[in-house]
Amino acid sequence: MTAVLEISGLRKTYRSRKGVRKALDGFDMVVEAGQVHGFLGPNGSGKTTTLRTLLGLIKPNDGRMAILGREVPRLLPEVAGQVGAIVESPQFFGNFTAETTLSLLADAGGVNPHRVPAVLELVGLRDRSKERVKTYSLGMKQRLAVASALLKEPKLLILDEPANGLDPGGIREMRTLMRTLSESGMTVLLSSHILGEIQLICDSVTIIAAGRRVTSGSVSSVLATHASATVKVRLEPGVDLAGAAAVLRAAGAAVTLEKDHFTVGNASNPAQITKLLAEKQIYVAELTPVSADLEDVFLELTGTAPVDGANRQVDQVAATTTQGGWGQ
């Protein structure tokens, strides 16, 4: 497949009175043609900095970037007409209608005016297109932003949190639109915190943490590589869950108590669970592997999983070390 977007060794630092902060620290990413590619990372990880740098809004300190085979930002004017993008919260003139807004953008960009009703139809704003933007909800403004990015019929569409403010029906419609665009040959780079949607819609993903890529590949391969070692344990009715959990924790198991069961998060050898509990006359009624999803992988790789009794701060990433599973 042909790479539509290539980033290699991208670095960006910011200086302040507190010192130097590395927003990007040798970041790499490749997006293949015709894919919907998910770009994931916690707040402050460098996602928006990457997108703004890619679009020539921020100057990098080092690294190489290319869009459609052209080096950017040096040759960005050659490919700008083939890229549609919304980054962060879009801003529009509140007294203009959606139709007027898009018509002005089309005129400024030399786009056929017939594209305006076409994109309004695509994003579901056809019947509200003559209303002033200041009367729009957040979700409707987000639809308008996506419409503006589609005006040029771009080869590469870059969307930063396109589902922001959308209701469940709108999120599903956006998912369908992204797939339709991909099937038509458009490449979509999608940044989102709705990991369930990313897992449903994307062909491939890149996960960034602390300015560095921590994993990338097809969604299926990323999930397979980080298969869960978690098992769900249900005991016979009336048995003390907390007491059983204490037995396993004493042996090094990572146990999370739920209402009517508990999970063991590092169970490389689930047979040890039944053995240890049986020795205490506690018998297991159910022992079920828990499938990993993209949220589990994200939390593990970015070190942002919640910790009991602690309040994680923005930019605070847990130290990650390679550990074997419990019960080997």
Automatic annotation (TrEMBL):
Keywords: ATP-binding, Nucleotide-binding, Transport. Belongs to the ABC transporter superfamily. SMART domains: AAA (SM00382). It holds the Pfam family ABC_tran. SUPFAM superfamilies: P-loop containing nucleoside triphosphate hydrolases. Residues 5-235 form the ABC transporter domain. This is ABC transporter. One of its GO terms (molecular function) is ATP hydrolysis activity. InterPro entries: AAA+_ATPase (IPR003593), ABC_transporter-like_ATP-bd (IPR003439), ABC_transporter-like_CS (IPR017871), P-loop_NTPase (IPR027417). It comes from Actinoplanes awajinensis subsp. mycoplanecinus.
